[in-house]
Amino acid sequence: MTEQRKTKTCAMCFEEIDERARKCPHCRHPQAGMSAWLSRNPAAILLIALIGLLLFLGGLELWGHFVASRLVPTSPDNLRTFNGEVKVVSSKMVFGKAKEGTVVCVIGRIKNESEIAWKDLQIEAQFFDQAGKLIDVAIDPKYYFASEILPHGEGAFKVRAVADFPKETYASYKINVRSATDAKKFP
């Protein structure tokens, strides 16, 4: 006895095929799933491509705004000399252990003695050995001073780096404020 199988018509070539077929044996066209639906709806492919393009362009636009907001041009309009304007009030050098190894940190307080509110201060720590030779430098972006210091205000800072030398080699340090942005001109 021959068993009667159920059939269906291929959506592409209109040949009769087994209803369980995933692909048409005649034209090899998919019979079910997303690829079959998309092949029957070419407008959907264009719509999906357009949405993808818009998302990509929107992502580029957002990325551009993010980068532009973080990278302020270094012109005389927004950077100034910090001699006498932003001073280190107190600081100390400390050592600790981290996943990366021994770390050297300088923590402290700074004071803004100017009439300008500063933001995005970049603070550098220079480390010296017993002979006064510069042995290490740290500007740590994770502890980048990002909050605003109001005129005549104070703030705390921390500069951290993996120590390249044994703890005993670090005899002294110096803190420098390398750059800042005028908070009113570049909010």
Order of helices and strands: EEHHEEEEEE
Give the strand tally.
8
Give the averaged pLDDT, no decimals.
78
**Class from secondary-structure proportions:** alpha+beta
Give the CA-CA distance, first to last residue. Answer: 85 Å
Condensed summary:
It contains 2 helices and 8 strands. With 187 residues, it is an alpha+beta fold.
Structure description:
The N and C termini lie far apart (85 Å). The longest helix has 29 residues, at 42-70. This protein has a 3-stranded antiparallel β-sheet, with no helix packed on it. It has a 3-stranded antiparallel β-sheet with strand order 6-5-8, with no helix packed on it. Residues 71-83 have low confidence and may be disordered. It contains 2 helices and 8 strands, in the order ββααββββββ. The chain is an alpha+beta fold. The chain has helices spanning 33-40, 42-70; strands at 7-9, 16-18, 86-98, 101-112, 118-128, 134-138, 154-162, 172-182. The protein folds into 2 domains: 7-70, no CATH class; 86-182, Sandwich (Immunoglobulin-like).
Characteristics:
elongated, 187 residues, 20% helix, 2 helices, alpha+beta, 2 domains, three-stranded antiparallel sheet, 36% strand, Immunoglobulin-like, 8 strands
Compile the SSE list and pairings.
Blueprint: E1 7-9, E2 16-18, H1 33-40, H2 42-70, E3 86-98, E4 101-112, E5 118-128, E6 134-138, E7 154-162, E8 172-182
Antiparallel strand pairs: 1-2, 3-4, 4-7, 5-6, 5-8
